[in-house]
Amino acid sequence: MTALLEVEHVYRRFPMGGILARDFTDAVVDAQFTLEKERPEIFTIIGESGSGKTTLARMILGLDVPTSGQIRYLGRPVPTSMWGRARHDFMARVQPVFQNPFEAFNPLKRVDRYLESTATAFRAPRSRAEIDRAMDEALVKVGLTLAEVKGRYPHELSGGQLQRCAIARALVCDPEVLIADEPVSMVDASLRMAIVNLLKSLRDDFGVHVIYITHDLATAYYISDRIIIMQKGRVVEMGPARLVLENPQHPYARLLKASVLSTENAGHGDLAPATDLIAASDEMLAKAVHSHMVEQPDGRFVRSNP
Amino acid sequence: MFSVFRDLLRYNVEFLIGVVLVGFITIFACLSFFAPMEPAMVYVVPPDQPPSWQFWFGTNSRGQDMFWQLTDAFWNSLTFGLTVAVISRIISIVIGMMAGYLGGIFDRVFMFFADIFVAIPIFPILILFYFVLRSDLNSFNLALVMACFGWPYDARLIRTVALGLRHREFTRQAVFAGMSPVKIMFEEHLPYVMPIIFSTAMANMIWSIGLEVTLAVLGFTNITIPTVGTTLFWANNHSALIVGIWWWILIPVVLLVMMFIGLFLLAVSMNEYIDPRSRLRRMGA
Amino acid sequence: MADILTVQGLKAYYLMNYYGISREVRAVDDITMTVKHNEIYGIAGESSSGKTSFIKVLAAAIRPPLEVVAGSAVYDFGGQQVDPTTASPDVLKQIRWKHLSYIMQGSMSVLNPVRRIEKSFVDFAMEPLGLSGKAFWNRVRDHLAHLKLSPNVLRAYPHELSGGMRQRVTIGLATVCHPEFIIADEPTTALDVVVQKDVLALLRNIQQEIKSSVVFVTHDMAVHANIADRVGIIYAGRLVEEARTRDLFMSPRHPYTGHLVASLPRIGDTRQRPALEGRPPNLAEPPPGCRFHPRCPLAIDRCRSEVPPLVTVAEEHRAACWRSDEVRPVLDADLPRNRAEVS
């Protein structure tokens, strides 16, 4: 097994207030996981707002620098400079998909412009036909064709189509890892499952590793292989997705699951808050400074206090 | 391009008025090429004649036909204003967009210089240039100097817009699509900056022509070059209002006001047209 | 029981004219529905389905280019009939907050960021309540205590409160005058799951206490399942189905609803979820006939030419589909097993 992406003891700390203020906020505390090259998977990072999941994603993409710890891609540190060959090569292998499909493309420019640019920049095409073929191949993977997209402006496409174009854009350069930050939270319900199913097919049919960042436990359960659950920068539980989500052990993970609105009993909603879980997870958080991850017999890791 | 012009003319009254006013002044200025005499020459017609069929705008105390003299003055002032606007726009776009998009050290260095240029008082500097260059101070040199002072505020404005655009998702999309910073700045972001450029170009022309008039009236420019400013300088020099030669002052001022209003209306209406939001609405978004 | 809101054949279009390109966007196209006293009526629909425009009409926030071209929406506030599409500004001012209030998505739009919360209460609630001084503040404090909010929030600025707390304050503000009708537009969309549940519970409790009617708009079907008494589904400017929440989820009679319900993933259920192909129609040039037909698995020729009317298909259950009898509760359908199991 070769390690594709290694996240090793990564911390990210932001100063609060002005330059002279000494307060800090820890956005990411001791994140650690590894993706294996030979085993494409959907690796999901679950967290609420302020959990540090987006900061972690930005660091993996090289858009932010860890305060300590290291993120390595194929054994080499992720290049963070805007310029240079190393950065260019890294971008050809690791590509992002962003949250808001309506913001993903410049509304004044045609959508295919971005696909074309990706093909030209990362695939060293020799002819116009080669560019078109690369674009069409990527679009077919997401269930579109070049003919449908060519010459279209973003407002002429639906949210679902735009998000698929954004994914196709990332796929043009045949990346090994796709980092999708809340890719469906702004997509309409009727189009959402198309995107989620698409991520699944990328893993199964094209062997792409997907890092799926979300706050939605239900879709995470539906497509993930492994998940980590983050609370205020700390990973509180990590392991096989189905195992963790069917029977979470950390109080915060249990609280998240208990807060998912169920549709089974539609019309007779039970909205009573899980007061005991809120108290338990707050208590764990208060003592989290000295906590550490403990491996369980079933293969998951749970944060526990000494 | 033609359809844009047609749409604007048909649906935008401001644009129509602007086109009429600016068009009138431009044609007027272009007539200078057909002038029957050198506009700078003096005592070629009887002095101090009021407007008449023979001398439409009258003649001044220096024996110049005001009509032909003003065509040349407006030609020079208009090209002067345009030169300042174009040069300072180029500086402010390049600096503003680089400071905003690239950020970091670029931002700090460029904005440091912008602040210095804002802080330096321009008027004494221009007078200094006048004393140093004297007869070498032609319109183009003066325009260059003024352009060097005309960019900092607008560069800051453009930087603010670029800063906002830098954090938009589509910019990150462009980065990961392998577009170079130059391409992102000038292809992705420029359309959003264009409205600012248009409206500030207008303000900049008013500023530079106004400053040229001020300098000229005080005698701190090359007064042998006919401009709106030097026309007023000579009028003042000959105490035109006191001796009752009102047309020497009134006509250039009225034409100048017409030009400013026309430019203003053009800038406003084109601004609305090229504004990205309005553009998107026309595209049907 | 009498209805508090009766909407009859309401059509509201965006009429736009830019440089000679005029467009007519039929955002609300012939909606007829009623809201009863003391119920939460959920409205579901995707972005640009017209649900926001519909709410704008109900909230009397009709501004150009949005125009009501036909129909009416009439509130019945204890005998006083008010139609927001025609009422004068004076009448609207008099009913606002006292009879009709709002809870919006971004609480910042109601709470002034540079004024303390108490000032917002003074601005909005003092006049409609007709109280002043001590009596007013006692009423406000009592109300906040009901919502389990500390009176200290009154002294705070909006930015000092968390998102959930702000939304709770907004609910407090919207309900302090005990209005008969509350319009809630995506009030929990921006909140985290834990807080969302809490805010929903709060809204449900206060609604039951003061016996208001609520129109609750959200695209999230799971929220509707837990808070609404009845749900109406809007697709492309039309109401396509309306039923009691349980009936809607258990036996949808419009294919679009069927899809919405079926596509909700659930923890513990690994079956493959279907995806709906195609895209929502452009409201400037909607397809003829049933607007859902280009994406509908059941579409027949009739759907392409004739608009299906919204007809009663069961008790308190209306649907606009020519083949509503054949719509299956897709949840129980035999969907293929999910291919990827955990290794």
CATH superfamily of chain A: P-loop containing nucleotide triphosphate hydrolases
The low-pLDDT segments of chain B are: none
* Annotated CATH homologous superfamily of chain B: MetI-like
Tell me the structural class of chain A. alpha/beta
Distance between the termini of chain A: 33 Å
Query: Largest chain-chain contact?
Result: A-C, 52 and 55 residues
Report the β-strand fraction of chain B as a percent range.
under 5%
Give the overall silhouette of chain A: globular
What would you report as the Rg of chain A, rounded to the nearest angstrom?
20 Å
- CATH fold descriptor of chain A: Rossmann fold
Approximate shape of chain B: flat
The major sheet of chain B is characterized as: none
Strand order of the largest sheet of chain A: 6-7-8-3-9-10-12-11
Q: Per DSSP, what share of the residues of chain A sits in E-state strands of 2 or more residues?
A: 15-25%
CATH architectural category of chain A: 3-Layer(aba) Sandwich
Mind explaining what this structure looks like?
The complex is a heterotrimer of chains A (306), B (285) and C (343). Chain A is 37% helix and 25% strand. Chain A is built from eleven helices and twelve strands. Chain B is mainly alpha-helical and 285 residues long. Chain B is built from twelve helices and no strands. With 343 residues, chain C is of the alpha/beta class. Chain C folds into two domains: 3-228, Rossmann fold; 235-329, no CATH class. Chain C is built from ten helices and twelve strands. An eight-stranded mixed beta sheet of chain C has the order 6-7-8-3-9-10-12-11, with helices on both faces. In chain C, strands 2-1-4-5 form a four-stranded antiparallel beta sheet, with helices on one face. In chain C, helix 5 runs parallel beside helix 6 (193-210). Chain C starts with a strand and ends in a 24-residue tail after the last strand. The model of chain C is unreliable at 331-343 (pLDDT under 50). Classes of the chains: A alpha/beta (306), B mainly alpha (285), C alpha/beta (343). At the A-C interface, helix 6, helix 7, helix 8, helix 9 and helix 10 of A face helix 6, helix 7, helix 8 and helix 9 of C.
